[in-house]
Amino acid sequence: xxxxxxxxxxxxxMATGVPAVQANATNTVALWPGLAASTGAYLxxxxxxxxxxxxLLVTSAVGGFAGSLLLLKTPQHVFMRLVPxxxxxxxxxxxxxxxxxxxxxxxxxMEDWRALTWQAIVVASFVELLIGIYGGYFGAGxxxxxxxxxxALGMDDxxxxxxxxxxxxxxxxxxxxxxxxxxxAVLWPQCVVMIAGATAGGWFGAHYAQKADxxxxxxxxxxxxxxxxxxxxxxVY
Length: 237
Prior knowledge:
Oligomer: single chain
Structural class: mainly alpha
């Protein structure tokens, strides 16, 4: 209903005693199949010229690899101290994501985004690289940053924006998943259970979201994110 579910699944893994780094890696792998499956519904909406799409896909993959490698190199105690800040940043992105996208859209670099200059493509690719690094490292809220970037390029079709946002997120997380599997950072018993739960939850959530009050759903998710952030600030610090 809210996209991802990291605010719930990541703390849940840590609550069972899974170390922070492994919990993050396992969470990423567990949620990726559902995210990848959702791309099928969006592909028909994909309307992005190749000169822009290809650089974004490449920088997404590179960023995802870099972010996941950075996570694996982060000591457990250091990452644990980052957890509250990462949860808070993801919550704030979720809270103000639409406003950020609206502001970016008002300051769009040009009216016809299909006629982007190479300078605009370079800037967008660099921004996507940074998004990919954050996505590979933690990832909560990356969709909102991506939407803001696309709005700044001049895109205004929310369905087309949703299509490329989902595709880029899948590429970022695919790179991270590959890295985590190779590094043996995934706890498979927990991961398999979570994949089943995420698949069922994604199916029911997609149907229920069409009937639920979006404003109420947002308030619930924001409340969960703030509560989890506060809990880890108190316990860690």
